[in-house]
Amino acid sequence: MSRDKVIKENFTKLQQKSRAAWESLRERPLILVGTATCGRAAGALEILKVIKEELAKSGLEASVLEVGCMGHCYAEPLVTVYKPGFPPICYGYVTEGIAARLVQDFLGGDDPCLEFALAALEANDMVPAFTDFPRGMIEKNIILDKCGLIDPENIEHYIALGGYAALAGALGRDPGQVLEEIKASGLRGRGGAGFPTGRKWETCRLAPGEEKYVICNADEGDPGAFMDRAILESNPHQVLEGLAIAAYTVGARQGYFYIRAEYPLAVARVKKAIEQARQAGLLGTNILGSGFDFDVDVFQGSGAFVCGEETALIASMEGEPGLPRHRPPFPATAGLRGKPTVINNVKTLSYVPHIVERGARWLRETGTDGSPGTAVFALAGKVINTGLAEVPMGTTLREVVYDVGSGIPGGKAFKAVQIGGPSGGCLPESALDMPIDFDSLSQAGAMMGSGGMVILDEDDCMVEIARFFLDFTQKESCGKCTMCRLGTRQMLDILEAITRGQGKPGDIELLLELAEDVKAGSLCGLGKTAPNPVLSTIRYFRDEYEAHIKERRCPALMCQSLIAYYILPEKCERSCDACVGSCPVEAIYTNEDRIKVIDQQKCVKCASCLEACPPQYKAVIKLSPPELVNEMGA
Amino acid sequence: MKTVTLTIDGRTIKAREGEKLLWVALENGIYIPNLCAIPGVKHPAAACRLCFVEIEGYPRPVTACTEPVVEGMVVSTRSPRVDRLVQTAFELLLSNHQQDCANCPRNRSCELQRIARERRIPLRVKRLRKLERELPVDDSSPALRYDPRKCVLCGKCVWVCREKGTGVLGFAGRGFGRRITTFGDVPLGQSGCNGCGECARICPVGALVEKKADI
Amino acid sequence: MVLTEEEKRVALEQTGSILENYPPDRGNLIPILQQVQEKLGYVPLVAMEEVARHLGVPAVDVYSVATFYNQFRLIPPGKHQVKVCMGTACHMKGGHIILDCWKRRLGIDVNQVTPDREFSLERVACVGCCTMAPVTVIDDEVHGKVTPTRVDGLLFSFGVKIPKGQQKEGETVEQG
């Protein structure tokens, strides 16, 4: 029997077994509970417990599965119910009471409790589906498509829904053909800079040497991004399959997952996925009878943002501090232990099985010419629907913020969107209609980066956000090269002075000079991109910098040193004590008119009183510059 | 070994192919500022960011310590872009350097003074804030005096301590807190250092000095 | 921080048994240190020396790695570990104010331990619960939407009484 027939036969057996298991699961009602980290933080494990208890109590027959993240983090905990005769319905903001009712009334009776439903997963006549909402029309799930719908700890679910078919298909072809497919697809690395994946693979494939490695970079360190974690927690097999295909293509027999130790659940799920793949014969020696050997280990990163940089990642795997090295040589020719090494991000590898399965042309149907496919964003900050969203490249920022994210909460005004985390930049309202892809973002002074997207509103100070990101990169700088170690430190000192109201004329110009030189002169990508948040905020919000420096005023009323809290006497209700009780430092006293007054000397500006003051009074306000307090009293 | 011909600042120079540009220039009497480069080390640290040069056909300045020479290479050690980068890197180092030249044992033999002289960059930095490091001077060794506030983190002492000394020196911490120190940050006198003095001889500044040189 | 003889003995014993599982390959350094911290809660100097001997590298190289990565703690943590999320979303929703509160209430700075070793305070990058910002993680339990009063409430739940208005900066909280 020919080699590709053997592979096909072996895989078909595996697929049939998995499909049978998946279908038997669907014979009775099925309840999915999202228990990724975001769900757990919202209490998903308690919900799971309630559902199991209720089922036991009522004696109803149903299967319960723990699944990953669907991306609707704002509505966690999420529960999805499949019941024959009904469309699959997803419920959000599930409480223990709602969970109990879903079992009693929906499974026990025939009331689908639509008042708690978020949407149906498929179009139907009964409940609006996700695709009926503007968000659903814009979203296009490629790499998130199975997230939240399968048990990430069960390889059979992944296989039953088409998983590992791409690996089986690839193994039946020549590695060169697989490489051509990836090259033709125009896939670009989702880790940050958007380097063409096919070119990286080709370099490694052509590099001399028997021993080669493939590494999945899951050292997600952007402080506002969590999509890699969500994918690993929700569908680890997809990434593992991508890694195996990469290994086959470049000729590697050993692969690694480099995962942040701060992601314990992701580590556990990937380890389990590896174990299951080994047992199914999809890892190890002679995979599916193809003669190809490949195995994978997990390496836990120790908490250093700079290790997202390929050469630093390699250094840490070799037992060194995570110091980047000069490139060239690039890891694709001399990487781990000096051997040719391909390092790809979680998201990049997630596309690989889809491309191999459906072809390069299929990927190019989505996205822009320069950036085919989709982009996955982690929406956070001042946006209603926080969570994950996968949209075609070329979608505008406005669609992402307003249609997918449902806009800004509390009726506040949009100010900026920070894209790409510490390497990215802040884009203003005028950039909202820009189609997003790798190239348009870098032209606008931001960067796709990791895909973190933080929405900022009128209450957010742009100098402060620049300071925040620079503080982050400065702390995460490895300290090896002068430009980054001292350049970012100098810039941070200036920004701190500005946010404290101690900025000097010429500080903006000095910031710009240093930013240019740190960009041009740093050794690695961290330093080369660290100034982006500063450059982009100066470019679009220079007036805010000037207000801080010239008027000692924070227009967004955010910088603590430049504001004061003040209780408006005419609005203070007098008999209410909410603010007094809320103050952690006893800075609020009652004057002879029973009006509450803040002792500015004692105030630590924690905002407790502002939040405690009942909304019908709104007596506590912020003032900038703080000296305005004296004028108010007069 | 194959020989190649290249041009540096208009001078035609023959060199071994693959040799790093920095060494070729220095061997031929063309000065390029540098602090962290160590001859013969396979992977240059490329940490000090001072040896920038322009190479024809390259879009931006590159570090000479990492660039292997090739046939026909055309190099200039000065250009407005190079000068600007070198000045910034140099000023950044000075802003973080405890400056007391008059009382420093390395006065007149200090590499920082040399760079200032060669590139006509004042040793007093006006535009940057002083970045103080709160690290104590280590006077515990009978042979050596270590002032970490003067250290430019070139790493030469760490290298030579391994090659010729006892291997007690190393880097610790990261970012602005990166420092050259011993295991557990113990004073040199208790670290197992034998006082051979190789580190003081290779130190380009006055961070590590031999005590007899003090007098 | 000076370790007791007992602490040293435990550290050496545990480190020894961890090292049995690893061949002396420098690539194992970080996994070994992670194991040591997992077992002991921190990586003491005596353990680092032991690891260096096993791997045949200078002790200062192990120190170099242990002081480079955020994950490694060189002193024993408090009984309760308070981790304040400093991710972007938490920062924009006042995470720094919450961190200040913890500092004030515990009377310690970040990466310090209260003298009674009850609490230690750390800042962490995004824990991925941005929708619940600002977030504090205490002993692996995530607390969302934390306010200054909630900080006091959480401390109270650990049996710490805060005599109102009597707390000064730099003073350690008394155990109730």
TrEMBL record, chain A:
<dbReference type="Pfam" id="PF01512">
    <property type="entry name" value="Complex1_51K"/>
</dbReference>
<dbReference type="InterPro" id="IPR037225">
    <property type="entry name" value="Nuo51_FMN-bd_sf"/>
</dbReference>
<dbReference type="InterPro" id="IPR036249">
    <property type="entry name" value="Thioredoxin-like_sf"/>
</dbReference>
<keyword id="KW-0004">4Fe-4S</keyword>
<dbReference type="InterPro" id="IPR011538">
    <property type="entry name" value="Nuo51_FMN-bd"/>
</dbReference>
<keyword id="KW-0479">Metal-binding</keyword>
<dbReference type="InterPro" id="IPR019575">
    <property type="entry name" value="Nuop51_4Fe4S-bd"/>
</dbReference>
<dbReference type="GO" id="GO:0051539">
    <property type="term" value="F:4 iron, 4 sulfur cluster binding"/>
</dbReference>
<dbReference type="InterPro" id="IPR017896">
    <property type="entry name" value="4Fe4S_Fe-S-bd"/>
</dbReference>
<dbReference type="InterPro" id="IPR017900">
    <property type="entry name" value="4Fe4S_Fe_S_CS"/>
</dbReference>
<dbReference type="Pfam" id="PF10589">
    <property type="entry name" value="NADH_4Fe-4S"/>
</dbReference>
<protein>
    <submittedName>
        <fullName>NADH-quinone oxidoreductase subunit F</fullName>
    </submittedName>
</protein>
<dbReference type="InterPro" id="IPR037207">
    <property type="entry name" value="Nuop51_4Fe4S-bd_sf"/>
</dbReference>
<feature type="domain" description="4Fe-4S ferredoxin-type">
    <location>
        <begin position="563"/>
        <end position="593"/>
    </location>
</feature>
<keyword id="KW-0411">Iron-sulfur</keyword>
From TrEMBL, chain B:
<feature type="domain" description="2Fe-2S ferredoxin-type">
    <location>
        <begin position="2"/>
        <end position="81"/>
    </location>
</feature>
<dbReference type="Pfam" id="PF12838">
    <property type="entry name" value="Fer4_7"/>
</dbReference>
<dbReference type="InterPro" id="IPR050157">
    <property type="entry name" value="PSI_iron-sulfur_center"/>
</dbReference>
<dbReference type="InterPro" id="IPR036010">
    <property type="entry name" value="2Fe-2S_ferredoxin-like_sf"/>
</dbReference>
<keyword id="KW-0411">Iron-sulfur</keyword>
<dbReference type="InterPro" id="IPR019574">
    <property type="entry name" value="NADH_UbQ_OxRdtase_Gsu_4Fe4S-bd"/>
</dbReference>
<feature type="domain" description="4Fe-4S ferredoxin-type">
    <location>
        <begin position="184"/>
        <end position="213"/>
    </location>
</feature>
<dbReference type="InterPro" id="IPR001041">
    <property type="entry name" value="2Fe-2S_ferredoxin-type"/>
</dbReference>
<keyword id="KW-0004">4Fe-4S</keyword>
<protein>
    <recommendedName>
        <fullName>Ferredoxin</fullName>
    </recommendedName>
</protein>
<dbReference type="Pfam" id="PF10588">
    <property type="entry name" value="NADH-G_4Fe-4S_3"/>
</dbReference>
<keyword id="KW-0677">Repeat</keyword>
<dbReference type="InterPro" id="IPR017900">
    <property type="entry name" value="4Fe4S_Fe_S_CS"/>
</dbReference>
<dbReference type="GO" id="GO:0046872">
    <property type="term" value="F:metal ion binding"/>
</dbReference>
<comment type="function">
    <text>Ferredoxins are iron-sulfur proteins that transfer electrons in a wide variety of metabolic reactions.</text>
</comment>
UniProtKB/TrEMBL annotation, chain C:
<feature type="binding site">
    <location>
        <position position="85"/>
    </location>
    <ligand>
        <name>[2Fe-2S] cluster</name>
    </ligand>
</feature>
<dbReference type="InterPro" id="IPR028431">
    <property type="entry name" value="NADP_DH_HndA-like"/>
</dbReference>
<dbReference type="GO" id="GO:0016491">
    <property type="term" value="F:oxidoreductase activity"/>
</dbReference>
<keyword id="KW-0479">Metal-binding</keyword>
<dbReference type="GO" id="GO:0051537">
    <property type="term" value="F:2 iron, 2 sulfur cluster binding"/>
</dbReference>
<keyword id="KW-0408">Iron</keyword>
<dbReference type="InterPro" id="IPR036249">
    <property type="entry name" value="Thioredoxin-like_sf"/>
</dbReference>
<dbReference type="InterPro" id="IPR041921">
    <property type="entry name" value="NuoE_N"/>
</dbReference>
<dbReference type="Pfam" id="PF01257">
    <property type="entry name" value="2Fe-2S_thioredx"/>
</dbReference>
<feature type="binding site">
    <location>
        <position position="126"/>
    </location>
    <ligand>
        <name>[2Fe-2S] cluster</name>
    </ligand>
</feature>
<keyword id="KW-0411">Iron-sulfur</keyword>
<feature type="binding site">
    <location>
        <position position="90"/>
    </location>
    <ligand>
        <name>[2Fe-2S] cluster</name>
    </ligand>
</feature>
<dbReference type="InterPro" id="IPR002023">
    <property type="entry name" value="NuoE-like"/>
</dbReference>
<dbReference type="GO" id="GO:0046872">
    <property type="term" value="F:metal ion binding"/>
</dbReference>
<dbReference type="InterPro" id="IPR042128">
    <property type="entry name" value="NuoE_dom"/>
</dbReference>
